Amino acid sequence: MKYDPDTQLSLNLWQESAHTSHLQVDQLSVPDAEITLYHSYFTVKESDEILQRLFMEVNWRQDKIKCYGKEINLPRLTAWYGDIGKNYTYSKITMNPIPWTPVLLWIKKRVEEIAQVSFNSVLLNFYRDGKDSVSWHSDDEPELGKDPIIYSVSFGGERKFQLRHKFQKKLEKIEFNLTHGSLLIMKGKTQEYWQHQIPKTTKLVMPRINLTFRIIKCLT
Ligand SMILES: O=C(O)CCC(=O)C(=O)O
Ligand SMILES: [Fe+2]
Predict the structure, then answer these.
(1) Which atom belonging to ligand 1 lies closest to the Cα atom of 154?
(2) pTM higher than the cut 0.95
(3) Is the ipTM of this complex over 0.90?
(4) CATH code of the domain covering residue 38
(5) pLDDT digits (tens, 9 = 90+) for 77-100
(6) Which Pfam families match (predicted)?
């Protein structure tokens, strides 16, 4: 199923839940999930500046994973920032967060304006081109606790975001684009019942930076 941002609703999957002068908000109406998309949560001017600063200022690293005994590079660069003293395991990699920087604190404050929670960490992904991706997964690491709240903001090149139900195989895959300055919220049972990915694309795409704000429940 395809979501076209130019036509407001597609196949009744999305229910428009609010519409202010500057914020278009859509609620995805699928079973076992609570997913909301703000198309332009940040203005273009804000997003352009954020993109440039994150690109320059973030301490990007190339992580490796073991696959059939072989070490391979993750197809993206990552970084982990947050309250000091919290460790987090992701794709079998343990990360020690780097302390918040001014631009990250600014973005965090902006998303917390509507979040009604306070995030203690953020995972950043840098997709250099269409060959960079993140494959099917749920953000369901034990450190995130039950029904994690994930606020995901995107800057730079537009990429396709796909969701598939873990158990109801008859449900079609859902996909929509994450645009420059968008905010995607996933909460409730979303991670328990759904997986998501950013697929590779052969299209020419601009570099993209994504930040997922998370709450780590336990210190390790
Ligand atoms: O880049 C994205 O939009 C998704 C990233 C993601 O799923 C993750 O970091 O867990
Ligand atoms: Fe994820």
Answers:
(1) 3
(2) no
(3) yes
(4) 2.60.120.590
(5) 999 999 987 676 666 667 678 999
(6) 2OG-FeII_Oxy_2 (PF13532)
